[in-house]
C-alpha cells in the first residue's frame, strides 16, 4: 500500500478503505477481492490490455463514477519504452492522469531521483505514454497483448 499526502504520514497499518486501487497483475482479480473497502467515489487502474467487461469489472465500473475504472496496458508500454516488463512507472503515469492526486512532473522527478539517467529517461517516457493514453492523446502500444 501507499499513502499520499501533503504532510508527513506516520501511520503504518493496512489501508482498509482505499481511495485508489492499482492492480499490477490482473490475474489477482480471480484470486483476491482487491476492491474490498474501495471508496464509493474511488479510482481503479488495472494493468491489462483487455477490456473491463472481459475482466468482469463492468459492474465495478458501473458502481463508481464514470471514468473512475481504467484498464492500462502497462506491461506492454513498459516493454515498448523500457525494454522490460516493469509496469510501475507506467501505472504512476496513469494514476497522475486519472486522479490528479500527483502530477506527472512529480512522477518524473521521483523517477529521476531513483534511477540512473538512461533508465530514468526510459521510465519517464513510459509514464508519459500512460499519462497521454489516459488523457486520450496517445495511441495504444504497438505489441499485441499476451493472454
Architecture overview:
- The chain is built from 5 helices and 3 strands.
- The protein is mainly alpha-helical and 147 residues long.
- Helices cover 38% and strands 9% of the residues.
- The model is unreliable at 143-147 (pLDDT under 50).
- The radius of gyration is 15 Å and the shape is globular.
- The protein has helices at 58-63, 74-81, 88-99, 104-114, 117-135, and strands at 20-23, 43-47, 69-72.
- Helix 3 (88-99) runs parallel beside helix 5 (117-135) and helix 4 runs antiparallel to helix 5.
Explain the layout of strands and helices.
Layout: E1 20-23, E2 43-47, H1 58-63, E3 69-72, H2 74-81, H3 88-99, H4 104-114, H5 117-135
Parallel strand pairs: 1-2, 2-3
Helix pairs in contact: 2-3, 2-5, 3-5, 4-5
Amino acid at each position: 500500500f501507499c499513502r499520499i499526502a501533503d504532510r508527513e504520514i506516520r501511520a503504518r497499518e493496512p489501508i482498509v478503505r482505499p481511495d485508489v486501487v492499482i492492480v499490477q497483475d490482473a490475474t489477482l482479480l480471480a484470486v483476491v477481492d482487491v476492491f474490498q473497502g474501495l471508496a464509493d467515489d474511488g479510482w481503479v487502474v488495472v494493468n491489462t490490455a483487455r477490456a473491463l467487461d472481459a475482466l468482469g469489472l463492468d459492474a465495478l465500473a458501473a458502481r463508481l463514477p464514470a471514468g473512475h475504472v481504467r484498464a492500462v496496458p502497462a506491461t506492454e508500454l513498459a516493454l515498448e519504452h523500457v525494454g522490460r516488463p516493469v509496469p510501475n512507472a507506467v501505472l504512476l503515469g496513469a494514476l497522475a492522469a486519472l486522479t490528479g492526486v500527483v502530477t506527472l512532473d512529480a512522477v518524473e522527478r521521483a523517477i529521476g531521483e531513483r534511477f540512473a539517467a538512461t533508465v530514468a529517461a526510459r521510465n519517464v517516457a513510459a509514464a508519459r505514454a500512460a499519462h497521454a493514453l489516459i488523457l486520450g492523446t496517445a495511441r495504444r502500444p504497438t505489441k499485441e497483448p499476451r493472454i
